[in-house]
Amino acid sequence: MKNFTVTIKDVASLANVSTATVSLALSGDPRVNVKTKKLVEEAALKLNYIPNEIGRSLRAKKTETISFIIPNTSHHVFTHPYFAQLLEGINEVLDNHNYNLMLSTSPSEKDESAAYNKILKNRRTDGIILSSASIHDRNILRMVESGFPVVYLGKWHHDNVLTVERDDIGGAYTATEHLIRIGRRRIVHITGPLDHQEGIDRLEGYKKALLDNKIHYDEALIIEKDFSRESGYEAAAELMRKQIDYDAVFAGNDLMAIGALKFYKENKISVPGDVSVVGFDDIEMATVVSPMLTTIHQPMREIGYKAAEKLIAFLNNQEVKEKRTIMSTHLIIRESCGADMP
């Protein structure tokens, strides 16, 4: 695997100065003139360079604050039921250890880099809990390598990152196999973004269930969306426009499933008579929509709690026995799939 770690030599090369000048410029030494300092800072920002000394100083200077960074893919991110439950678990642990919580959003990959670097430079936080990032985002690994404490909520593709994960593959497999067991064969999967690991893993679980049950995988039944309720509505509309033949939908989260339910209701498509629908998350809204949503339950509050526990242990120099913690999921059968409710 290619190593994307940026060093002081890379910054020096881009700015066309010595490594000593880079070190002096980034530490604010007055011997470096304004023009050179600007060149170095621009090079460091372009490369997303995080000096190792920042990590060391952060460990020495406590702020008693933990940051929870949420990529801002929705205008309603702080009222999103998924994040609300995560925050409950995180807050309980931080309150018990007298830590404050700082919330932050980042609307784009470019802004994510700037946000992380600003937090590090200003030294406003002792550690970060990060929820959902593109698999192409290099900031997480850079922060870990700089010595900054980070816990990621989800699977990450480097072993040295502390994570609390859901069993996304297993949950998606269970959802898809349930639909197969009740007689569905043309199962649409509305995925989340496929540059995010949860989107990739839930698609993998869906595919595996089809394969194990000898059902042909059809690309026409895969619609990539963004986890929002509006995108679930759009997916159902797209299926109608394209005249796709299908008898079930497995949505990558509950909000997209609920968006699809809204479209079906408006267009007099019977659920579960014409189409069975299954979601993923088990948010509170799943029990108040009509028909009530069959879904995969994931313990969101417990995930937040476990992530905060792991970060506090790391900050207190305690042994973190599990770098990866995987939380189990299970099927909740309600009205939208057509199976008998327990």
From TrEMBL:
<dbReference type="InterPro" id="IPR000843">
    <property type="entry name" value="HTH_LacI"/>
</dbReference>
<dbReference type="GO" id="GO:0000976">
    <property type="term" value="F:transcription cis-regulatory region binding"/>
</dbReference>
<dbReference type="GO" id="GO:0003700">
    <property type="term" value="F:DNA-binding transcription factor activity"/>
</dbReference>
<dbReference type="Pfam" id="PF00356">
    <property type="entry name" value="LacI"/>
</dbReference>
<dbReference type="InterPro" id="IPR010982">
    <property type="entry name" value="Lambda_DNA-bd_dom_sf"/>
</dbReference>
<keyword id="KW-0804">Transcription</keyword>
<feature type="domain" description="HTH lacI-type">
    <location>
        <begin position="6"/>
        <end position="60"/>
    </location>
</feature>
<dbReference type="InterPro" id="IPR046335">
    <property type="entry name" value="LacI/GalR-like_sensor"/>
</dbReference>
<protein>
    <submittedName>
        <fullName>LacI family DNA-binding transcriptional regulator</fullName>
    </submittedName>
</protein>
<dbReference type="Pfam" id="PF13377">
    <property type="entry name" value="Peripla_BP_3"/>
</dbReference>
<dbReference type="InterPro" id="IPR028082">
    <property type="entry name" value="Peripla_BP_I"/>
</dbReference>
<keyword id="KW-0805">Transcription regulation</keyword>
<keyword id="KW-0238">DNA-binding</keyword>
